[in-house]
Each structure stands twice: as C-alpha cells, then as structure tokens.
Amino acid sequence: MSSTPLRLPVTPVIMAGGSGTRLWPLSRAGYPKQFLVLSGNTSLFQQAVTRLQGLASPTQPVNPPLVVGNEEHRFLVLDQLRELKAEPSAVILEPTGRNTAPALTLAALQALEGGQDPVLVVTPADQTVTDSESFNSALAQAVEAAADGTIVILGITPDRPETGYGYILASAAEGIAAVERFVEKPDASTAARYLAEGSYYWNSGMFVLRASAWINALERFRPDIASATRAAWAVRKTDDKFVRPGKAEFAAVPSESVDYAVMEKCPGSPAAIRMVPLNAGWNDLGAWEAVWQVAPKDEAGNSHVGDAVFADSRNTLVHATSRLVSVVGLEDVIVVETADAVLVTDRARSQDVKKIVNRLDAEKRGEHTLHRKVHRPWGWYDSIDNGPRHQVKRIMVKPGASLSLQMHHHRAEHWIVVSGTAEVTNGDKVIILSENQSTYIPLGQTHRLANPGKMPLEIIEVQSGSYLGEDDIVRFEDTYGRAPK
C-alpha cells in the first residue's frame, strides 16, 4: 500500500519591519500597525503567523515561522508569538531598515543554514484574509510550483479600480499563469481599464520560492545587494532566538524592495516567475480607507471601534481609543482619536496621512514615534499628567519582570502600588510593597522596580525635578540587553 510522499518543508517568513505611517495616529514607529488589532481579535502580525500555520497537513510539513523585524520591536514580536503559543525558528533583527530585498535575503540565508533549502512562503505582516480555505488552496498550489525552483507570486483578483496597489499582467485567469509584466500604481482611468480587461491582478507582496531560488535570482540581478548582505550575515550574533546581522555591514547594504531588485526583472528573462490568482477576501491595510473597507458597517455605511455616536452621517469610520467621539453630518470621513492626537481626513485622502507624519518628524515632535502609553519589554507606562516640574505615570510590570537597575540625575520619584506586589530596590535596601503602600526614591538614588508575583503589578509614579526627560537615566544592570545610559 503506497502512501503520499512528503513535500518539501515550508518555512513561513513574516516580514514585520514596516512603520505604517499612513495609519497614524494609531500606528507609530514604536508600535506600528502590524502589532495592532485592526481587524478581528488578534493583531495583523498574529493573523499572518496563524494563516501560514494553516498550510500544514500530513503530507506538508511546515517549519516554525521565521520573522524579520526591527531591533526596537523584538519584544513585541516575542510577546505576540507567545500569546499564540508559537515558537519561532528565529527572529532576525535588522539594525536599520534597508527595505524588503535585504530583509528577504537575511531570511533566505537563515533558512539555508545546515544544508536545508525549504520553500519560503513570504508575507508582509500587515494584511488580512477572510477566506482561509481559498487562501490555503492557492498557497498549496504555489508551494508545489515553487518546489522546482520557480518563483511564484500571489496575484489578487481585483474587485474595484484601485489606484493604491501595483498590478501584475498575467497570461491566464486560472491556475498557474506566466507573469508578463509588473505595472506601477495606475491612475483612476487606467485602473478601471485594468479591471475591465480581466488580465491584471493586484500585487499582494506575497511570494513563494525556495531559499536558493531567491539567492540565485538576487545574485543575477543585484549582486551588490547579495554580497553586501552576505557580509553582514557573516558577522551576525545570535542570542537565543534573536539573530543580529553586523550593524555597520548592514548599514552599507543598498536599500531596495523585492519587486524592484528582482521580481520586475524576471519577466522576459531566463529567471522563471509565475502567478497564482488569489480570491480570498484579501486586503492590505495600508491606509484608513482600507480599514473602513473591511470593517463591519451599519445601514448607513458607518463603522466604529470604541465609543462613538453618529448622527446624519454616511460611509464614515470612527476609531476611538480613550473617550466618546460623536460626529454629525459627515460623509466619507475618517476620524481617529487617541489619548494624545486626533486625525480627521477625507476617506479618499487617507493615503496622504503620511504627510502629517513627515511634518511631525521635520518639526521634531514625538507624536509620530510613541503613544502616550509606551510599551516596554517589562510592561508599559502611560504618562497621564505632566507640568513644568512634575510628571505622573501609570506603570504596569508583567509577572516576573523587572526594570533596569538605574538612577536619575535630575528627578526624584514617589511610587504608590495600585495592585499586585512590588519588590523595590532603593539604595542598599530591598523592600516588598503591596496594594496602597508607597515609597520614595530620592534624586541620585540607585533603584529598581520588579514584580515577584504571578499577577500584573500596577503603580502610580510621581516624578518631580528640574528635568523629566526619558534620557535622564543611568542603567547599571538590564535584563533586556539595552545599553547603559
């Protein structure tokens, strides 16, 4: 009795390094859109991991996911994987952003370690898919085609004349089609013509290919990127699941996208590239308009997250995070409220939100980088009040976690335990505080806050002094590998 042979193993590659500027003010550099819950009950990153795990079957082995992300987001990645009970094969940390071609090259080099050459299923971490069955069927077809060295791209069957995506011209509407050419984002009339002709597909940014196929194609079309990335990989350092390429070497890698570096050069060349059509409720949540597209709506086309009230409004999205937001007489508008910033934009102009982010950056403001509530490896803090010589923070420390052993030159601190148990190092003393107890940390005193319990610890911290900036910190010991300051 014969059995179906095992296929080549698949390694999911999650590209999690984007900044999501067009989804400001919810998405910020310190907590970008891929780690936000914008659709469903899990983050976009978690959805990408779960989606690719669904490819596994008795005949199709699937390796643990390989994540490529930013050094700054390493603990967000681990925390969100831990919530899924998903152990990564590795988390490759880019010391600086060099676009997707070098990122995929790092993933391919990692996948080739130990003489392996799996099929890589490469996906951005910021997309949604509503039809899992159709997605898995298309992906299985792409994996089978990629096993022989073919590069396969998933092309999205368009349902509207979208001007925000690049397009693919394919030779057939079903099965595995030859890619004839890639097309840049079109204007409205060209997009309408593409939709009518039926041979054009949206470029999903999802690729299926063997690790060696990517390296071979990159060495053919962009040997400079290949050699520079290899140089950074050669001096990598490994810390448990974290893999860090050489910082100086990676900064010298040319910045280029997968599309520009390789994919757009494949049609008409000896390098084979094919497309599998995907009709599975796909959406690239690149801007607030896309979030409105996938959101549940009332009979007037309005959608909301959080506390919102609509009156005489149509086709409007309200995303409220901290208070009631009410709108009257609006049509085709996006309103996003956070604790420290509010965005109001015409839905048709939501791609231009990045102009606000660029202006905030140019003016050296902080609202494009961090939320008022800032996530850290040990938990988070929320700056709930501040003045010229004081600042009040609400701080949560995870069970078993601790802040660094530190001191401040310009401020003193009062700590009040709201819930949980705190272990406080205050100079040469270590004390335990429970709910409603407090302590005082004098200016210049070495101190540390830790949570020895099994429940989250929450405290209120009142800072007072002549300077209250986050850079007034001298670290002596740190669990999370952060450099002393």
What can you tell me about this protein's structure?
- 22% of the residues lie in helices and 32% in strands.
- By secondary structure, it is an alpha/beta fold.
- The chain has a six-stranded antiparallel β-sheet with strand order 20-21-22-29-24-27, with no helix packed on it.
- Strand 10 and strand 11 form a beta hairpin.
- Helix 1 crosses helix 2.
- The model has no long low-confidence stretch (mean pLDDT 91).
SSE layout and pairing:
Blueprint: E1 10-15, H1 44-53, E2 66-70, H2 74-84, E3 90-94, H3 100-111, E4 119-124, E5 127-128, H4 132-146, E6 151-156, E7 167-170, E8 177-183, H5 188-197, E9 200-210, H6 211-221, H7 223-234, E10 237-239, E11 242-244, H8 247-251, H9 258-261, E12 273-278, E13 283-284, H10 288-294, E14 303-305, E15 308-311, E16 317-320, E17 325-328, E18 333-337, E19 342-346, H11 353-362, E20 373-376, E21 379-387, E22 390-397, E23 405-407, E24 411-419, E25 422-426, E26 429-433, E27 438-441, E28 447-450, E29 457-465, E30 474-477
Parallel strand pairs: 1-2, 1-4, 2-3, 3-11, 6-12, 14-16, 15-17, 16-18
Antiparallel strand pairs: 4-9, 5-13, 6-9, 7-8, 7-9, 8-12, 10-11, 18-19, 20-21, 21-22, 22-29, 23-30, 24-27, 24-29, 25-26, 25-28
